[in-house]
Each structure stands twice: as structure tokens, then as C-alpha cells.
Amino acid sequence: MGGTASKVFRRASKPAREFNLESRVERILDREKPTPAPRHPGTEHINLPDSAKMKEDLFEADTELLKRLEEVYVTSHDTWAGQKDAVGKSRPLPVDKETIADKPYGYSEPRKISYGKTTLKNVLTFMTDHNQSPDEWNSTKISEKFKLDKENVDHILKYYNLFTLILPGKHKVIKYDAEATKTLGAQRVIQLPAPESKQI
Questions:
Q1: pLDDT tens across 119-161, in order?
Q2: Cα(70)–Cα(65) distance, integer angstroms
Q3: What are phi and psi of 191, to 5 degrees?
Q4: What are the φ/ψ torsions at residue 66 (nearest 5 degrees)?
Q5: pLDDT by residue (tens digit) across 4-47?
Q6: N or C terminus: fewer CB in 10 A for the chain?
Q7: Nearest Cα to Cα of residue 143 among 111, 113, 118
Q8: DSSP for 24-65?
């Protein structure tokens, strides 16, 4: 729809745009040419070469320059290898070729932790301790040990949880690693009831 409307508008406005076109063009062409700004007194004596002559000079072969180029002779000596050895002796490259071990949490833990801040490892540690024994590891003790604000610790313990292992009840034998569940959810294993079997 928009394309059609613009075509119609262009066709309708064409006579108005082309009205008295020739006289308008002549008027613009007959205007006086703007006078160039005066040159600085220091550059008046410099005569710029004609652009047509410059183009001719560019495409002509300069015989004097070609003669000079024929006289040029380049000799090279292989000194780079010696320089490289000298640099290598004075500044040897590191020889340690050990691979960097993968970090347990996927990033490097900071060595120094500022007051009021903590790491992911510490958060998981105090959350696991709190889940195993909430009376012993309360928010006051955690905030004192890890140098955190008590209000922030309360929020972490309230709004964040560790993994809870939920085992479906339809299986007769449930196999799981008790040691692994301790670290995952502090022995929080929830047994779901077996689904009722429907007879058709």
C-alpha cells in the first residue's frame, strides 16, 4: 500500500517539480562564481603546477631515476640467527611445561577475600554445615566465621538451597550413594509414594 501511494504522489508532483526548470537552471549557472579567499603573503610566490602537466609527468618514464636504480646493488648478510641466539641466552624463555589443572568450580578462587565478601566454595560449605546441624551452624556463627553480614547470611539460608535428591517410589530397590547425598543435600533424601496402579 505504501509503495503505491508514493508512486501516485511522485507522478502527481512531477509537473510542479519540473515547472520552469530550464530558467531555474540558467539562473543558477549565471550566478557569479565565488571569489576565492586571498592567499597568505608567505605562500604567494609558490606556483602550483598545472594538474594536466602533473598527470603527464606521472605516466612518463623518468630516465634519470631508472639509471640510478640500475646502479643500486643490495647485499645482505644473515645476521638474524646470531642476534636471535644472543637474545635467547640473555633472556631465556620459561621452561615450565606443566598443564594448569582444572578448577573445581570452573574459575580461579581469589587468594584474599575482603570483609563482607565470600566465595562460592565458602557458601556451599556453610550451607552444607547448616543443613547438617542447624542449631550448631546458625547464621550468627556463620557470619562470625566467614566475616559476613548476619542479614546477608539469613537471606542466603532462607532463599537458597542445596540440591535435594528426590527418589521416585515405583522402584522396589533404590540405589544411591549415601556419601554423595551428604555433600549434595546434607542427607535430605525424600521418598515419594509409589503411583497407584490403574486397572483397565
A1: 988 999 999 999 899 999 999 999 999 999 999 999 999 998 8
A2: 9
A3: -95, 120
A4: -65, -40
A5: 888 888 888 888 888 888 888 888 888 877 777 888 888 777 77
A6: C
A7: 118
A8: HHHHHHHSPPPPPPPPPGGGTT--PPPHHHHHHHHHS--HHH
Enter the C-alpha cell of residue 75.
Answer: 647485499
CA dihedral 67, 69, 75, 78 (to 10 degrees): -170
SS3 128: helix
Closest CA to 153 of 170, 166, 134, 171: 134
Q: Is the pTM of the predicted complex or chain greater than 0.70?
A: no
Question: Is-contact 170 196, C-beta < 8 A?
Answer: no
pLDDT tens string 71-86: 888 887 766 655 655 5
Q: 3-class SS at 165?
A: strand
Q: Which residue type is seen at 103?
A: K
Three cell numbers, residue 42: 608567505
Residue 136 C-alpha cell reads as: 550448631
Tell me what pLDDT residue 169 has: 67
Q: In which region does residue 42 sit, left (phi positive, over 0), alpha (psi from -120 to 50) or beta (all else)?
A: alpha
Classify 190 as helix, strand or coil: strand
